[in-house]
Specification:
Number of helices: 9
Distance between the termini: 15 Å
CATH architecture: 2-Layer Sandwich
CATH topology: BirA Bifunctional Protein, domain 2
Largest sheet: 8 strands, mixed
Structural class: alpha+beta
Helix content: 25-40%
Length: 349
């Protein structure tokens, strides 16, 4: 339901109907903040204005200008994530931090997407990314208990938020849900487009002539894998192909995959986590490759944050997770649209 549908969100009757979920949102936020503080985390506030909004090919930012006293104009962006800023804090000596960050992403609107939303992002220096998996399970249970919710549900799918999440590799998910041997289509850091296309076509999934490896991978994820995740209990989908993890460390076990996972419940992606890449040379290579792809597909690119790349050179090993706080509140309160849990939804022009 759009914020323009029927009556404006601020009309008294509509606000009264929305208010119980909004009060639950506040309660969940307090509980989560307390959980992190008891765990020794420090709350931080990343600046929303950044020289680079992030460099993932398919993320779209809001651009503006910084005007100096002398009238000089410099492009600047609303961040799509507090990631770069938080990693600079880890480089500066912080060891356990979290941020309820307001972030902005263009070209996104729907039941699970809003142009302005809240990312709960946290980092642990010197710890393996498996620690974040335990964090995610604890936060799901905490949100459910705070909201008095015994079961998450969304679009006919249900999950027990108190159950231990299933851990499933991406390769295992492709085999289980699409009968595709994903790892056979990957050589080191690169995907073999033709091999994946043949396997996907044999599984009855459409492949266009100009699809890249990533396009085909994403289609299988959306059509075959994601709808089956987080049913009955949450799912942690881990070991993403290295080509799909531009900011994550390569797995020491298998160079074809990276230490990245996503958390799902009821088919809804809730969180994205990495063992962080701290090699500035390799990070630059990956971000530049992402911007080449963005220019190819959308005809634009964003600048690299040179300050971020410099910080990586001294950043210690760390892991970090970004969780869609609004989506978590949706599942904990039974909402069917993200605007039901936003205090003041952005009105479409």
């Amino acid at each position: 339901m759009s914020s323009n549908a029927a009556a404006p969100w601020w009309r008294a009757d509509r606000h009264a109907a929305r208010r119980p979920r909004l009060i639950s949102r506040n309660a969940i936020k307090r509980a989560v903040r307390g959980w992190f503080e008891r765990g020794g985390f420090t709350e931080v506030e990343a600046a929303a204005l950044q020289v680079s909004p992030g460099n993932e090919a398919h993320l779209h930012a809001y651009a503006t200008e910084m005007i100096a006293i002398d009238g000089a104009r410099t492009p600047i962006y609303l961040h799509t994530s507090p990631e770069f800023a938080c990693k600079k804090l880890i480089a500066g000596g912080e060891t356990k931090i979290f941020d309820f960050a307001r972030v902005w992403r263009n070209r996104e609107r729907g039941a699970l997407h809003h142009p302005e939303f809240t990312l709960l992002e946290w980092y642990r220096a010197g710890e393996p990314y498996e620690a974040l998996m335990a964090d995610c399970a604890a936060l799901l249970a905490l949100a459910a208990e705070t909201a008095g919710c015994a079961q998450f549900s969304f679009r006919g799918r249900a999950a027990d938020p108190l159950a231990e999440p299933e851990r499933l590799t991406v390769a295992e998910a492709f085999t289980r849900f699409a009968d595709i041997d994903l790892l056979a289509t990957i050589s080191a850091h690169e995907g073999d487009r033709d091999t994946l296309a043949a396997a996907v076509s044999a599984a009855g999934i459409r492949v266009a002539a100009d699809d890249t490896w990533t396009d085909i991978f994403s289609r299988v994820m959306v059509e075959k894998v994601e709808p089956n995740l987080g049913q009955g209990r949450p799912t942690i989908l881990y070991e993403y192909p290295a080509v799909e993890a531009a900011l994550a460390r390569i797995s020491p076990r298998d160079p074809r995959v990276a230490e990245r996972f996503e958390l799902y419940a009821c088919g809804v992606e809730l969180a994205n986590a990495f063992a962080e890449l701290t090699d500035p040379v390799e990070q630059r290579r990956r971000l530049e490759a992402e911007m080449v792809e963005k220019a190819r597909v959308y005809g634009e690119r964003y600048p690299l944050d040179e300050d971020f790349l410099a910080a990586l050179a001294v950043m210690p090993p760390a892991c970090g997770c970004a969780l869609g706080f609004d989506r978590l509140v949706m599942l904990a309160t039974g909402a069917t649209h993200i605007e039901h849990v936003l205090w003041t939804p952005v009105v479409e022009p």
